[in-house]
Design brief:
binds zinc ion
Length: about 675
């Protein structure tokens, strides 16, 4: 149970009034209900402030609103559940509309659009519910639980008990609306900074002045840059030179030595090694070009100023969150419901695995050269190594010239994933496809009468392979969102345990994207390679997550740091993690690449969800293999809802969350490979 919030004073009349009410309630409903009354009254007392009313109001309110028998309590539960679905659902629809100009590729974003995007209509709800006392109705009748209680007792609860626990949790904090609004504003600002951070690659020049990339190629940091590194493995001619150039670009972004003028600007040519810039003679993106004062003055640590804003806003929440008084605690104990220590214990066996040198040696022999730092994104284990990115682009753009063409094909895609035609149509009917401004994302609904939205980036020349690969991932989110809202027993249990699970389910589909194109016939060798690919990806993203975690710990230890200090600390943290876990495998020391992820800047320590997601994805994928088809297993898993991660995973696969499945399979994959040679 939460302790007192900081600005809450014990009201002098509270304990006498509580005792008086308890006595009257016992007289009315009987001794058997006493424990429930005590808990409810205590929960109300903890959040009650002087402005909520005096002793008389408190007594009158609690006497009138305690549900003294099961029938009344059930009626209360059912009605509240229905009305909260309506409230959350409609508020979410408003939010989606208000963000539309910022999220969709529909012309320039004007300053006022950002204000709409930053507005969170839900910011006031909890506050309003305390003011009108609906929150107190819930707190009086449904128990608040700690993570420890949910972990220990949750497996024995009924589904309704779980739904009741989630209901009470919505009122476990009383955060002022102004604080919530600050968080939303910082988030939106960082988001906007990230979503426009494009590099025009035709203007990135090699040390010898050569243009390595084709005209008009605009890559969004860091996703498109990283994916270009991956794609370059299938280009024996220019691939290596391009990968080295992208590494330089990434390092300049992280250290903020990137000239400010090259960000999203095709008017300037740039040598990322020497940092020399000059006005470009090539006009491949004039619509976006900004001429004018061409100097190579570095970006003024904007990257870290943005991150600091999200930290400062998060810190404002701390005093109102007594059971999880830092963003770090809220992320692990509340959002993930896996303690931070346990997450570190899950990642440690991956980043220190004795299998790493073996896999690294394998990559080295496949590449025929010593490993370089960007090889943390080695992608040659995938069977699509057989196709160049360009070949895949041709196939995809022919199949999907427009977002509409992709939308129309969704039922067919889903049938290929093993859904029945009926189920495929049902899902397709619940997904709306929109053109994304960024690289793509999925936005679910929050009430059953609304639909999920799939945002995908389609260039004027048609969908390219990257866009398609992301679209399949986002569609995976939409399917999970649809099942876990529309096909679940209690809407209060809507969703999955945490975002790592939705990522896991999305990645399972994304991992089969080539099959949708009719390209890959899965065989034992491809499976072996896929396992090695999963292992290498998990290794890479585990380091990224550890950097994110350490950076947040650093910010909490240095709450008044400047952007410049945060930059230096981040660079040092990235080097430390690299030197500990990556330098021994990849050779070079003091590499900063692990700090390139854009989500580190705009997503409030979201990155640890990725490696957890890989582990979970692996467990889930193994289960789907055992079951045969993806579709029905996907549905079975996605309708379990928002319980603890281990409970969900035990229901899905029979085992709790962990790295064991991945490591065992990697060992097996390596021995398969040796046996076949
Ligand atoms: Zn995702």
């Amino acid at each position: 149970m939460p302790s007192l919030t900081h600005d809450q004073q014990t009201l002098p009349w509270m304990s006498a009034s509580s005792a008086k009410v308890e006595q009257q309630l016992v007289a009315k409903y009987g001794e058997t209900e006493r424990a429930r009354m005590q808990r409810g009254l205590q929960q109300v007392a903890e959040f009650w402030r002087a402005e909520d009313g005096d002793a008389a109001i408190f007594e009158q309110f609690t006497l009138a609103n305690f549900a003294g028998d099961d029938a009344t309590r059930n009626t209360m539960f059912t009605r509240i559940q229905r009305l909260l679905e309506q409230l959350n659902g409609h508020m979410h629809e408003i939010n989606r509309e208000f963000r539309q100009q910022a999220d969709l590729d529909s012309g320039p974003v004007l300053p006022f659009d950002q204000l709409f995007a930053g507005y969170d209509p839900q910011a006031h709800i909890v506050d309003d519910f305390f003011n009108n006392k609906l929150a107190f109705v819930v707190l009086l009748n449904f128990p608040l639980t700690t993570l420890q209680e949910r972990l220990a007792q949750g497996p024995n609860w009924s589904r309704q008990q779980w739904a009741e626990a989630r209901l009470a949790q919505s009122f476990s904090k009383r955060i002022p609306a102004s604080v919530n609004l600050d968080v939303a504003r910082a988030s939106s600002e960082a988001d906007s900074y990230i979503s426009q951070y494009n590099i025009w690659m035709h203007h990135v020049r090699a040390p010898d002045g050569q243009r390595l990339f084709p005209p008009k190629l605009r890559l969004l940091s860091h996703w498109n840059l990283r994916d270009e590194i991956k794609a370059d493995y299938s280009d024996p001619q220019n691939g290596l030179a391009r990968q080295r150039a992208i590494q330089q670009v990434m390092e300049r972004i992280i250290t903020q030595t990137i000239p400010a003028v090259v960000v999203d600007n095709p008017a300037v040519d740039w040598n990322p090694w020497t940092n020399e810039i000059k006005l470009s003679t090539e006009n491949d993106g004039l619509g976006n070009a900004q001429f004018g004062n061409v100097t190579n003055a570095p970006e003024p640590n904007t990257r870290y100023a943005m991150l600091l804003k999200t930290f400062t806003a998060s810190k404002e929440v701390d005093p109102y969150s007594p059971t999880a008084p830092t963003l770090i605690a809220r992320r692990f104990d509340e959002d993930r419901e896996i303690p931070e220590q346990r997450v570190r214990q899950m990642l440690e066996p991956v980043v220190t695995s004795p299998l790493l040198p073996q896999v690294a040696a394998l990559i080295q022999s496949r590449l025929g050269r010593p490993l370089e730092p960007f090889d943390i994104w080695y992608d040659g284990f995938r069977s699509r190594g057989a196709y160049t990115e360009a070949q895949l682009d041709v196939i995809v753009s022919k199949k999907y010239p427009t977002a509409e063409a992709f939308k129309e094909d969704i039922p067919n895609i889903l049938i290929k994933f093993g859904f029945t035609p009926q189920k495929a149509q049902y899902l397709a009917d619940n997904i709306i496809v929109d053109p994304a401004r960024g690289s793509g994302h999925a936005m679910g609904a929050s009430m059953r009468s609304a639909k999920a939205h799939l945002r995908t980036r389609v260039e004027s020349t048609g969908m390219n392979y990257k866009g398609f690969n992301i679209a399949i991932h986002e569609m995976g989110h939409n399917i999970e969102q649809t099942f876990s809202l529309n096909n679940i027993d209690y809407t209060l249990l809507e969703g999955v345990p945490n975002t790592a699970f939705t990522e896991a389910l999305a990645m399972v589909l994304q991992g089969h994207d080539l099959e949708v194109l009719g390209l890959a016939a899965p065989n034992a060798h491809a499976e072996t390679l896929k396992t090695l690919n999963d292992f290498w990806n998990t290794y890479e993203i585990s380091g990224v997550a550890l950097v994110d975690m350490d950076v947040w710990h650093w910010m909490y230890a240095h709450p008044s740091a400047t952007p410049e200090q945060l930059r230096d600390a981040t660079v040092q943290i990235a080097k430390n993690i690299w030197n500990q876990y990556y330098a021994p495998i990849l050779g070079k020391k003091d590499v900063v690449l692990l700090a390139v992820y854009s989500h580190m800047i705009d997503s409030f320590m979201y990155l640890p969800d990725y490696p957890i997601g890989h582990l979970i994805a692996f467990q889930v994928e193994q289960q789907m293999k055992r079951a045969g088809a993806i579709g029905p297993e996907f549905e079975r898993m996605a309708t379990m809802g928002h319980v603890t991660p281990d409970m969900w995973m035990i229901h899905a696969t029979g085992k709790p969350v962990g790295s064991e499945a991945l490591l065992t399979a990697t060992e097996q994959a390596l021995s398969n490979l040796h046996a076949s040679h």
